[in-house]
Amino acid sequence: MASLVPCPHCGQRPKEEFTIKGAALTRPAAGADASDWFDYVYLRDNPRGAYEEYWHHTSGCRRWIVLTRDTVTHEVAASRDAADRPRSEART
Amino acid sequence: MSSYRLPKGGLVDRKAPLSFTFDGRPLQGFAGDTLASALLANGQMLVGRSFKYHRPRGILTSGAAEPNALVTIGRGGRTEPNTRATVQELYEGLAAQSQNRWPSLDFDIGALNGLLSPFLGAGFYYKTFMWPAPLWEKFYEPFIRKAAGLGKASYDPDPDSYEKSWAHCDLLVIGAGPTGLAAALTAGRAGARVLIVDEGSLPGGSLLSDSATIDGKPAADFARDTSAELQSMPNVRVMMRTTAFGWYDGNVFGAVERVQKHVRDPARHLPVERLWRIVARHALLATGAEERPLIFGGNDRPGVMMASAMRTYLNRYAVAPGQATAIFTTDDSGYALARDLEAARVDVVAIIDSRPSAGVDYRGKARLIREAVVCRTKGRKAISAIEVHRGGRAETIAIDALAMAGGFSPIIHLACHRGGKPTWSAEKVAFLAPSGLKDLDLAGAAAATTDLAACLAEGAAQAKAIVEEFGWSCPPIVLPKVEGTEGTHASKPLWSIPGVKGKAFVDFQNDVHLKDIGLAVREGYSHVELAKRYTTNGMATDQGKLSNVNAIGLIAKARGVSPAEVGTTTFRPFYTPVSFGALTGPHHGHQFQPVRKSPLHDWAKKHGAVFVETGLWYRSSWFPRNGERSWRESVDREVVNVRQNAGLCDVSMLGKIEISGSDAAEFLNRVYCNAFLKLPVGKARYGLMLREDGMIYDDGTTSRLEENRFFMTTTTAYAAGVMNHLEFCAQALWPELNVRLASSTDQWAQMAIAGPKARAILQKIVDEDISDAAFPFLAAKEVALFGGTLHGCLFRISFSGELAYELAVPAGYGESVADALMEAGKDHGIMPYGVEALSVLRIEKGHVTHNEINGTVVPADLGFGKMVSGTKPDFIGKAMLQREGLAAPDRAQLVGVVPLDPKQSFRSGSHILAKGAAAALENDEGYVTSSAYSPHVGSTIGLALVKRGPSRHGEEVVVWNGLHGESTPARLCNPVFLDPQNERLHV
Amino acid sequence: MSEFRPTLRPVLGTKQAVSSATLKLSPLPEGTIIHVLARPGEQDMAPFLESLPKAAGHAVRPVSPGQWFIVREEQMPHQEMKSLFAALEPRATGVDQSHGRVRIRIEGKMAARALSKGTALDLDPSAFPVGQSAVTLIGHIAAHITRVGSEAFEIIVLRGFAESLWDDLARMSLEFS
Amino acid sequence: MRYSAFSVLLNGLRGNRNWASAWRQPEAKSHYDVIIVGGGGHGLATAYYLAKEFGITNVAVLEKNYVGSGNVGRNTTIIRSNYLLPGNNPFYELSMKLWEGLEQDFNFNAMVSQRGVLNLYHSDAQRDAYTRRGNTMRLHGVDAELLNREAVHKMLPFLDFDNARFPIQGGLLQRRGGTVRHDAVAWGYARGADSRGVDIIQNCEVTGIRLETGHVTGVETSRGFIGCNTLALAAAGNSSQVAEMAGLKLPIESHVLQAFVSEGLKPFIDGVVTFGAGHFYVSQSDKGGLVFGGDLDGYNSYAQRGNLATVEHVAEAGKAMIPALSRVRVLRSWGGIMDMSMDGSPIIDRTPIDNLYLNAGWCYGGFKATPGSGYCFAHLIARGTPQETAAAFRLDRFQRGYLIDEKGQGAQPNLH
User: Fold this and answer.
1) Of B225, C27, D184, D233, which is least packed with CB atoms within 10 Å of its CB?
2) Which CATH architecture has domain D117-177+254-339?
3) How far is CA B494 from the centre of its chain?
4) B570 at A interface, C-beta within 8 A
5) Is B195 helix (H, G, I), strand (E, B) or coil?
6) What tens digit of pLDDT does each residue of B823-833 get?
7) Per residue in B851-871, pLDDT tens?
8) Is the CB of residue B808 less than 8 Å away from at least one CB of chain C?
9) A44/D411 touch (CB, cutoff 8 Å), yes or no
10) pTM, whole model, 2 decimals?
11) H/E/C letters for each residue in B526-545?
């Protein structure tokens, strides 16, 4: 939900307490080749439906979180601290 | 004849008369009246003129859907155009003006448009006014703009206040009619946190207009007693005069409470309106239903009214619509009205029922005409007769008021705000709320349940189910006994009426009539959205509350499909219009954004600082002194004094971040493009932070105070952004690093002490030895002050190019320390200097700020190419920095620029053209990023980003500023105008 | 100038306390606020912080995962703070925020109602009991709220915003004063 | 049937019974020279110019909903060519010139109304940025004036000059900027293209792109397969979805931008004014409603609706700019789906697939760009080479590092 955002630490909070960064992609390793970096910085799946994105609880606990949010219904399926690595590191 | 007040009855307080005016005419009403009921009570049936044809219009409804009775109320900054007379509560001294008429409501020149109506059909303006082209803006459009619009807004500022508030509840009940009251009572008794909102001034909704009895007492009394019980419960909050206008994600509802819109002189300690954001675990829509008009010729004539509205005026406000009324009905609700009218001794001349038989057994005196329709009305500014068609026969009946009952549309607006599409029910002849809604249900008339007893039962049952779902146990529901009412069975849809004569209106306010809809379909605008946009049906201030379903019915008929196939246009917030004031709350004028104050603000103030907004901060720009005639004089003095003696500048608003942990150095090494791993303890270093795309993000100095403790400074503008960025790096990118970040911007009052005398002055208050040997350039450490009574941080860094220090002391002591420094520097000629002087000093020295770091430059563009580490395995921005375009030979890069003639000047934002080149975009070589008058150089100097700039030092160019008609011959040069060897830093 | 004695200038020093039967708004003394940041992966340090010998008269306020404020009415001498910081290492870092942040107290029957005009927190005792803390927006300003009593709240705000927040709170209280 | 005052008069006298349909409702042919995906402003304009300027008439426009159901009918109707960067400015000026002759050209009154666009500035830094921008415009012969506080006060005395948190210092004015009746643009292009033989096929959703050896042969649709020699995508808002059917991943995110309209008022504000100290821009429609907007909600979305926080944010900026708005009531809010590109500028280019062309990434420049976008896209499709003013809108500029970043915000779409 983009009106109230479930922060894993603070519970439901209003959108204006957050800063939105966008797609929660995994940063390539230092030596990765240019195309991986280009993909990471510029290309987006931009799906209709489930989407993992970085939000920052700027006016709250100041933790970066990863929301799994539906881009059509705005429903949030999951919310976790960004420091807790996702189950698979594989890039989507 | 016209409408009038009945001698007795109603819920108005006859002991509390109220005077008000309409178009300046003094009138009387009672407490409990709306403006509309009071106007009708005074026989004022003509209240407005229509949008396009300026037809005389009366009061059609008794509520939020009113399309005709829009008036302007209030004066000066309290002027409110387009106020619906049907919802505006009457108050003593209310002054109402009719709209969209000239010279007067009674005689309106605009009515001539009616004669042109054959040429003013739907979309006519798309087909003409195109020749000759220039005339559109010079003639046609100004004329149309003047003719269009409704009320006139005031330009005066609003004297009243507004506020916002949050509310949380288990169950939000929207609508305090029978269904809502029953629901709130059930949930409240179970102990749930209940919030019930209603747009009206009294709880009860339709109960207030109903002649039925509940448990033997009048419906209105039942409403009063029920709300009294609700008010007495600590877990229930009843909010009247509150309209829920939107349903948003997270089951958040927007609502506006009209706290003081029903009083003449608002109390100062209260807002006039309050915006609510209501977070509800579950919501129940008990919003009732809207009665549909019928589409016959002259259905807009004053005296024609919705049947349900007529009943409300009669029963709630004791106002009779006229003396000889007729009722045109397609369902049984018309008969309840007939019964109530007759009970009030108002003559019902005829009931025209489109159906062969009614669902109720009518025993009244009125003549009953079945299988008949009204095809037109007669009269000028008020209805005088109707023409009734039955079979082939037409008959004219003289009347002075007509009620129309076209069936009911459930009010499902909010339920559709989150993308769900309404579904058509052929059985109910209505669009119902989308199915499968989450955390929201509908009950009562909003769910097409029409019978009063059934509504009470449904409200209670739904509430019970909801709170039991949440784990409360619900006491058994005892339903009250309802008498004196018949269920109104679904109407037989009557989209278009045979033999209609004259204009039959679909959208009253926008003057969209029957033929317009047909035309739109004929011309290919048959999709419901296209038809709406082409005819403007449903786009008026009532958002089609009365017109949309009828329009859909007509489109369906024209296309030969069912309304289900046509579908609706999109229901969008707001349910009823919401004022900017309410949406803004307290955040306007000076409160638009908070003020962030430096701990040295008052110190600067007492030295006469002129302040400037910098983000949320106020920074001191310069400190004028007696006899200085211009800001330039003051700034020049401050600059010269720094270069000759010493100055004190408040730099507290620089971002400050404490970075600690065993991986702090490694962390900094990754977030800066230059090396930080080996920065010695006690040293400061200038750092460049890139974005992942390789562009420079921000710069600043970072000092190593201890092995694992760093003190970072950022620019003022990017302080917040840098902190977010660092937290992202630490939490999301490299959570394995042991690093902790604490913003300490507000902890420190920070002062730049710059100039040849800086050391001598500072040494007087700093306990430690700060000689060049002991504390050289770029030294940084914690120091004791005043013999150990205070501790702070001292940095030997310089933005001005002079011997300079930055001293950070605990903010609460900032002013005191600044005073001490001014005292200590008195004999050394110390002066405060502001950001203007600071800017001159840094431009003279060729130091960049965000004027140059504009989000599109890489380090090499600003001469920092060598700073970028080639050895570090990784840092933010490293990979993208390798792209060919970012190393292209003709990139704009930093240079200095001076006018050839020192007497000439140029401004930032001017562009650079090669000498002799024509002023054309293809000759654009770059632009001036910063400029100032330099006392040191003796002329204006500038920094610029110019193609291949560094290789063009000495080249003559033109600084071009077409906006000001300036074209200044100038020379590109080294951006460092002063002390390129940095000797002054190291003294 | 070793004879010079720097004087503290409280940021809300000039503000008049708002007081009525149902609501009281008052600045708290600028004493001590220490920001404690635990190293990543460190377990809950609250008990440890509570137990600190020097913590007499201190209160501990949770801020966010691995972060707490230690607050007390009186100022803490430089050396005492240094040794406290030393005691925290290596598990946590202490950062002095005694001047960076300011405390305000709002109490009374209507305190929660007034705060609800600014924050989206559900301040019902069932959702926000005594002892609970949260960082949230109050209007446009971020602040740290703790319920210190059934009808009393402590607000901690950045010094630079303190005056603006005070004025906002006073305005939000107008209805009840 | 040609539209004119005479035709209105004549048909009026005949009871308006003889007006023909504005465009046909044809069945799709099995094959077209060019298929354009997207019956919004850009797709219809592309079809119109292909037919009118480049003589390519065997064209179909496939629209999954109704003509103009996308952003062309969900914006704040502003047109302007006050762009900062050389890569953008000439293109938007070309578009402006096309607007200026549009109605006579396609015989439909779209109410192009050049009542001026004024961007307020509140600080020296903003003034300098507008000086730079205004001079870019002047260098390209585009009209631009930098007004000081007094001049703005004279023009709009009802702005907040007395009690503002961020006092107005002046503004950058483009007098040729203004507004256009948005729906009419779609209808005018649709009617113009249709009359030149283009098939506009509504309720026809493209569900797949058929590729043979890296070459497009046609599209699968809800109405079956339709073949083509050239496929052109103009589906802004859904570009990523359509491109994915051809296996392309784009530097684009879809975001929701809300817009608003107030109740109808007698003339209140003449031109377009944008606030410099917050997110707010406003104009007044010929019907009397104040049409205004602000910033993106900020999250990726395909739902044409936003949330209340943004609504309040926009209203606050509005009242801060014009205190007298306080008692004006907002009637309706809606949302459009923006194709937000990674540098804030659009893409009109070929793709790695040789007969697949892309028109995307319009951010919120889309409406004002409609004629220029249609013309340049048609030029690219017809001639195979980019129209000169659109030459910078390359798809590979991100990879090569030739970005067109007006705001300097970098690769974060919600900041553009």
Assistant:
1) B225
2) 2-Layer Sandwich (3.30)
3) 40
4) no
5) strand
6) 999 999 999 99
7) 999 999 999 999 999 999 999
8) no
9) no
10) 0.97
11) CCHHHHHHHHCCCCCCCCCC
